[in-house]
Write a structure and sequence with these properties.
alpha/beta, 451 residues, four-stranded parallel beta sheet, six-stranded parallel beta sheet
């Protein structure tokens, strides 16, 4: 058995990588390995904190933007290289201390050697691997060349960084990606073979439901039992297509659909009245929207459309916590009180929140992003499709779909909000598909052949 070190910029949060790390840790520990987390932000997790690894420090963000966007903060290539080396050396020193203290025998970087959000961490960890002669399993969730807004390698040092460290070419490393598209790109761009391991979920775990802790959730966020919660649990960044959910909730609130809901009542026998609200609840965090422009555009669209929307990031954490009057709920609690989930991402490496919604037995409307079409759609899930092509962008820079697509989807969502029998049949069917293909048992089989 190995002493495994899992590295990431941050752990213990509600982002997809942090959640997936927690799943891998559980499966690896059940197999007898000792697993140690090491990150620049520990969130709700236990582990070793090395603040310099974090990707949202001013130093790391400056290196990232000057490597992949514009060399604007340094007078020349040499100055950029010196700054990169300085931070790399400091991170290497701290990781060395961690490796020796925990007697680490196996490295498991997550995104450090792929997305490059903190370039210095990539350099430092590669040096550590070679210094101690350690094997590694590199878990790549995203790559710098998949940036939604494109990328430019700005100078010779940036080119060398990408070539030598994102990811490194080394026989000690096995590579894992989370979809076939990325597997093909990695081979084409870098000549590196990899294994596809999809996102998973503990489908044998305890079902989420109301309990003494979360029973006040709706009241806490300002809703009542007769309101309809349309949930988006994703991070608030442009590639998540949150604006499409705004359009759907706007369509759901049209008088013809509200009249239908009032006539039939909701799927669980709750009444729907003139006072009932249909609310878009945004549970994801906006921290990765570095400029704030995307969230500002969403808020302006919400204002223009009159959509009832709640940003509840302040109430949500990776796990429940209570400090005096400051009560925080887990992301899972938001699913318990949802009536429908919209998954409108334009691009995903896989789609963690999609599995969460399936596990929560929630009906789902989905934009058929490329990885969904390539890796997931053929499994036969019963989702409401939003198509696979956007129609354009508005004056706010937000994408939109043809209105007939929105209206058709809104009609089908309304049916799920009314028809309890159809809702139960389809969500239980989706759960069975998820359990068959994306369980911890599946992950265990993958990892047995990699470690």
């Amino acid at each position: 058995m190995s002493n495994i070190a899992i590295f990431h910029y941050k752990v213990g949060g509600t982002d997809g990588v942090s959640l997936e790390i927690n799943k891998w840790k559980k499966v690896l520990e059940r197999s007898g390995h000792k697993v140690f987390l090491c990150a620049g932000d520990l969130g709700e997790a236990q582990g070793t904190l090395i603040p310099e690894i974090y990707h949202h420090t001013p130093e790391a963000k400056r290196l990232y933007l000057n490597a992949f966007s514009s060399l604007s903060d340094f007078p020349d290539d040499a100055s950029f290289a010196n700054a990169l080396e300085d931070l790399s050396a400091r991170i290497e020193k701290e990781i060395s201390r961690f490796i020796e203290e925990k007697n680490i025998t196996f490295l498991m970087p997550n995104n450090i050697w792929s997305v490059g959000a903190n370039p210095a961490a990539a350099v430092a960890l590669a040096r550590i691997m070679r210094k101690y002669g350690l094997p590694a399993l590199a878990h790549h969730h995203d790559f710098y060349f998949e940036r939604f807004d494109g990328f430019t390698l700005t100078c010779n040092t940036a080119v060398e960084l990408a070539d030598k460290y994102l990811p490194p070419h080394d026989s000690r490393i096995k590579h894992v990606v989370i979809n076939k598209i990325t597997q093909n790109k990695l081979m084409e761009r870098k000549g590196i073979a990899s294994t596809v391991v999809p996102n998973v979920f503990d489908f044998n775990g305890k079902s989420w439901g109301p309990d003494d802790y979360n029973k006040d959730f709706l009241n806490k966020i300002g809703l009542t039992q007769n309101d309809v919660v349309i949930l988006q649990a994703v991070r608030l960044v442009p590639r998540k297509g949150v604006e499409l959910a705004i359009d759907l909730v706007c369509a759901l609130n049209r008088s013809n659909r509200r009249t239908k809901l009032k006539k039939h009542g909701l799927y669980d026998r709750r009444a729907f009245t003139d006072k009932s609200r249909i609310v878009l609840v945004l549970a994801g965090y906006a921290q990765d929207d570095l400029t704030g422009r995307y969230v500002d555009a969403l808020k302006e669209k919400i204002r223009r459309t009159g959509v009832d929307a709640l940003f509840i990031e302040e109430f949500i954490r990776g796990s429940r916590s209570f400090n005096g009057n400051d009560k925080k709920y887990s992301l899972w609690d938001s699913y318990v009180f949802a009536d429908f989930v919209i998954y409108s991402s334009l691009w995903e490496g896989w789609g963690n929140q999609l599995l969460e919604a399936v596990y929560a037995r929630q009906p789902i409307a989905i934009f058929e992003y490329p990885v969904y079409r390539m890796d997931i759609k053929d499994k036969g899930f019963r989702f409401i499709p939003l198509g696979s092509q956007v129609s354009g962008k508005d004056d706010l820079g937000l994408v939109f779909l043809d209105q007939p697509v929105i209206e058709k989807a809104a009609d089908r969502i309304t049916d799920y909000l009314i028809d309890g029998k159809m809702r139960k049949e389809d969500t239980e069917y989706n759960y069975s598909i998820g359990k068959e293909y994306y369980s911890y048992t599946s992950l265990h089989r993958y990892l047995e052949g990699l470690i």
